[in-house]
Design goal:
45% of the residues lie in helices and 10% in strands. The protein has 168 residues and is an alpha/beta fold. The protein has a four-stranded parallel sheet with strand order 1-2-3-4, with helices on one face. The longest helix has 14 residues. 20% of the residues are buried.
Length: 168
């Protein structure tokens, strides 16, 4: 996979997002991309809440091995918000692991069209399935207000020091 942009593109994009008061949701395919985001924070180029999406879809992004997921979780700063994303038949097991670890998950037909025996599932069916799993594992389901609070919508920090302190 190729990203046809230099680091200056991403830095300028972050600057424009901050100026417009739009928080990025960092879609990361492996732990080394997390390290790149951490460097942006330490340099003061990003000064907002760290909202992450671990993209476990293979093909240049993270694979499906549980150890890779656990290592990414281990390396994610305590003050960050981490959502797990996968694709096709890996969605259900990856989401179950994420829910069990206290993380957030993403479901819907963009990621998966199929149930475990090859039958089609709608986004609503996938959400209902994920809610059942979350409840079985003792996790509450976020409301819209909860999600706004969890994702720290509208929050920004004054510089690298405050950002690093907020991330723990």
């Amino acid at each position: 996979m190729v990203v046809d942009a230099k680091p200056s593109f991403f830095i300028e994009h972050l600057r424009r997002l901050h100026q417009a008061r739009i928080q990025p949701h960092f879609m990361l395919g492996h732990v080394h991309q997390l390290e790149s985001v951490e460097r942006l924070i330490r340099r003061g180029l990003y000064t907002g809440p760290l909202i992450l999406n671990y993209v476990a879809i293979g093909g240049g992004a993270a694979g499906l091995h549980p150890a890779d997921l656990v290592e990414f979780v281990r390396r994610t700063p305590d003050g960050a918000v981490l959502t797990i994303e996968s694709a096709m038949r890996a969605v259900l097991p990856m989401n179950a692991m994420a829910i069990a670890m206290g993380l957030h998950v993403r479901v819907g037909i963009e990621d998966n069209l199929w149930g475990r025996k090859g039958e089609r599932m709608t986004s609503v069916q996938q959400i209902e399935q994920t809610v059942r799993i979350a409840r079985e594992l003792g996790r509450d389901i976020a409301t819209g207000e909860d999600a706004k609070r969890i994702y720290q919508i509208g929050e920004w920090y004054e510089g690298a020091d405050e950002t690093i302190a907020a991330l723990g």
